[in-house]
Amino acid sequence: MFDGLKDKLSSFREDAAEEVEEKAEEAETEADADATADAEAAPDPETERGSDASDGDATASDAAAADDAGEDSGPGRLKRAAAFATGKVIVEEEDLEEPLQDLELALLSSDVEMSVADRILDTVREKMIGETRAQVETTDQLVTEALHDALLDVISVGQFDFEERIAEADKPVTIVFTGVNGVGKTTSIAKLSEWLAERGYSSVLANGDTYRAGANEQIREHAEALDRKLIAHEQGGDPAAVIYDGVEYAEANDIDVVLGDTAGRLHTSNDLMAQLEKIDRVVDPDLTLFVDEAVAGQDAVKRAQEFNDAAAIDGTVLTKADADSSGGAAISIAYVTGRPILFLGVGQGYDDIELFDPEELVDELLGETE
Ligand SMILES: Nc1nc2c(ncn2[C@@H]2O[C@H](COP(=O)(O)OP(=O)(O)OP(=O)(O)O)[C@@H](O)[C@H]2O)c(=O)[nH]1
């Protein structure tokens, strides 16, 4: 999962750490050279005692040396050298220039959305530049921490505890799933039903996809495999009515959660978006979840944004993360929509769904999981 991105992040860490180390060493060499120059320029107390004239000469050459140092090194260098002498390393903007350019390219080529990449770069800059570290700390640690914070900042936008939300909500909890065709919506509903069952919550499936021929059969297969009740109407029926029936069934039978499928649609299909509005009006779902596939990268991010604009979503289920190397959608969707990723689909089996944990993803991306 996300191997391509992991490799790119790892290269950035190595390059940035190397640059900062190199510059720190330069500062050390300069600090040493300055110290030697100072020592050489310092008047010998023995000779000094005998000659008043040499006193004046020494002061002049000291000043000249100080001037030279100022001209050649600039205040940044001096500050750096001074910090180095006290056991610290200061990170300067120029150390990071090249690695950050490479990081930007790496993120964009991993399908990370532009504004998200910018934000990550800004945070890394903010966390690292002007930062001092003790020489005993590794620079890699400093870079890793900055990258960790930058990634977490964008990935964890809007995050809430899904399990707690379900536990605390009045029952039945109604969840409606939207998204385009073929991204794994129906499979995700089945997986979520199983995920809920494992945590002691019963669920009923309601097939609001009355549009596509074969939709009833597809979801029925899952319902039968999992031994769940399915509410379905004829093809061409009113999706809001199906989900409403699902809610009534749940109320009558003490079922905790209603999982409502809907037809795959583009945010631009007006009639289908109007159906979603009707579902909203008639059923007033507790949560509307957008489903898309991680492998769609930038397209998934764009669709999430467009769906959220057209019909406010509460979160995303990102499927096929197991087949995605880029990780761009996983990193970008929450920041772009302001709504969290709640689940990752990680395979075709019913158990292949994971509650999304931003901290866990960041650790995995930075190779800190083992
Ligand atoms: N590898 C992998 N495959 C998945 C995942 N989730 C779903 N799939 C597969 O993706 C395909 C499409 O899934 P569906 O659930 O039929 O997709 P859908 O969005 O409901 O499709 P429509 O009903 O046509 O809108 C199926 O073959 C699923 O097994 C996942 O997390 N990982």
Describe the structure in your own words.
The chain has 370 residues and is of the alpha/beta class. The chain has two domains: 3-155, Four Helix Bundle (Hemerythrin (Met), subunit A), CATH 1.20.120.140; 162-357, P-loop containing nucleotide triphosphate hydrolases (Rossmann fold), CATH 3.40.50.300. Helices cover 60% and strands 12% of the residues. It has helices at residues 3-41, 45-50, 52-85, 93-109, 114-128, 139-155, 162-168, 185-198, 215-226, 239-253, 270-283, 298-310, 328-337, 358-365, and strands spanning 88-90, 132-134, 173-178, 203-208, 230-231, 257-262, 287-293, 315-319, 341-345, 353-355. The longest helix has 39 residues, at 3-41. Residues 48-73 have low confidence and may be disordered. It binds guanosine-5'-triphosphate. Residues 181-187, 215, 218, 264, 319-320, 322-323, 345-348, 352 line the site of guanosine-5'-triphosphate. Residues 56-67 have a biased composition (Low complexity). Its EC number is 3.6.5.4. It comes from Halobaculum halobium. GTP binds at residues 179-186, 261-265, 319-322.
Quick structural gist:
This protein has helices at residues 3-41, 45-50, 52-85, 93-109, 114-128, 139-155, 162-168, 185-198, 215-226, 239-253, 270-283, 298-310, 328-337, 358-365, and strands at 88-90, 132-134, 173-178, 203-208, 230-231, 257-262, 287-293, 315-319, 341-345, 353-355. Helix 9 (215-226) links the parallel strand 4 (203-208) and strand 5 (230-231).
